[in-house]
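Posting for a labmate who doesn't have an account.
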Amino acid sequence: MGNSNRASHIAIAAAFGVGLWLSSAGLAAAADPGQGNPADGWGGFYLGVAGGPQFEQGRVVATSVGPANIYGVDAAHAKFDLGQGMARIGGYVGWNYVFAPKMLVGAEGDVAGIMNGQQTNTGLPGVNYFGAATNDQTTVNPTLDASLRARFGYAVTPGALLYGTFGGAFRSVDISASCDGSATSWCGIAESGKVTKTMIGWTAGFGVEGKVMDHLSIRFGYRYENFGSANVSFFTGTNDGADSFAAKIDQGSHIAELGLTYHLGGF
């Protein structure tokens, strides 16, 4: 976890530097003397595409093992942590309203697919059987992120915008568990199951955006997402529920995003 966290921090810092450089590289047009108020060109509707690294955090924690927790949760194997770098790519659409010479407020929605997000843990949470049931597995795979947010901007110049954003976030995540029914498996028979959860939480972040040509700008942003917890259970309907277990999954992530925006009416 320590090395993963350090790597994620380095990657975010590097992406932030690249984003700032790209956003400022095209700002020769930033001080356009033909515009009155610096924020005027940023008003109206826009849409764009974006991608970048995403760094996962969270955990899976056992809440019961066996029907009505008859076997009890083994404390030494009660949880496993989630922490992995992955990639996301998607699109966004939004609208800005200019209410002061340098200030605007707006709304933005985005949706993105998550790639390389699958994390697999040997054993089942809360189970210690033949060394935590080494033939069994639990897998967490986030597949889709989306958000609907407010956005506040400050136009440093007609071609350079600083912004902050916050709002609701949504995630689709697949949680799977499998037992092979062997002598070193928790389950008495071979079993597998998958649960798809839609998790709802919040997100907040900030960014910089710079004009590169008519109707086009490049942005770099950072956001943190927190999706809270969701409860899952497995194997309740097979083998009379004897192999069943339940767990709680916590999900959150750090996003570094580089985007290309087309402004329908601005610039």
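Reply:
Got it, the structure tokens are right above this. Residues 21-34 have pLDDT under 50 and may be disordered.
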